[in-house]
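[[Per-residue structure]]
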Amino acid sequence: MNRFEEDFLDYAGFGPAMQSKVVPSDKIARFRGKLPDKLLEYWQTYGWCGYAKGLFWTVDPDEWEPALEAWIGDTPFMEQDEYYVIARSAFGELYLWGRESGDSLTIQPCYSKIYPNDCRGRLLKYGADKCLEVFFTSLHKEYMDFEDINETPLFERALSALGKLDHNTLYGFVPALALGGLAKLENLQKLSAVEHLVILAGLADRQIMMDIGKLARL
């Protein structure tokens, strides 16, 4: 059993994988040298799939390119690195990998927030594969869930009320929080994932949050 299986699937409780979609060999070749070899290895072993009953998904970066462009296409980030969406949550949180900066951007569309995480130094010191492993093994289900207005996690209740997600759907608020909607179970719907995130990108000004890690190293 490898570290991914021990730490991520078993210890962190994200296993087993679900709805695995085989990654074509031409996709592996396309992203070779752009994404860590370790991620491509995970793709080949597990496919693009959901984890923790659909709370977390690994994705085809090409399919999520419209969402990436909608959220950071007109920001300074696009001039700093070459980014790819490598994973997302059930509520549309996006995890980006920068070719030169690693897991350096997380986007929380529901609240129109972008979280930078300057890790170029770590990438240079430890390498892309090690940083990719740390990314997966540091994920926590409780932080990935979304809380309602009473600070109660929503995922399990949404799963029960709305049914399982697939590769192309997410749980989204209608009306959107940016339009004054409330984070309540009854306001959640199962929506087309990429389309919904593109729409959310145009509803409110994006907030680029402070890079706490970078400040800590000053």
Notes: The two ends are 39 Å apart (CA to CA). Strands lie at 18-21, 48-51, 56-58, 83-89, 94-98, 102-108, 113-116, 169-173, 188-192, 207-208. Residues 37-46 form the longest helix (10 residues). The chain has one domain: 3-216.
